[in-house]
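Side project, low priority. Logging it here so it doesn't get lost.
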Amino acid sequence: MTPTRLRLLLPALLACLALAAASGRAGAAEGHCYGFPGFANPALTEKAFLNAAVERKGLSAAYTLTTRRMRRGLSCAGWLADPEVAPFPSIDWSRSKVRAVQQTDSLELLSFHLVSRSGVRGQFEMRLVRVGDAFHGLWRVDLWQAEYI
């Protein structure tokens, strides 16, 4: 994601994450997952998932951003206990990079080189899929895994 693209999307993303986190905190203690079921823009889904699941800032909100396949049959309570998402806290976005590997109308495969604020590095890949039709579909995360080179 380019810095310009991020600057344009950041205000909307932060507002969405704040709302999702607030609703997620209310239900998380009871094992309920609340949040947005994806976004029409894949970059918003990408950033929301990274913030909520990968940086562990709102697992409840992250549940609704994923496909059933990604959740592997886990209920909301199971997801909150063990989301099977490789964590990477405190991402330093000024040193991290993302590269599009494949992009179609209904699929995006992204490669991430993440750097934490403490200097830890990691390689990951993310697959986003559009759920629904091309005009009204929402993007959801279908895969998040460590890349081994």
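Brief comment: The beta strands are 97-103, 107-115, 121-131, 138-146.
Revisit when time allows.
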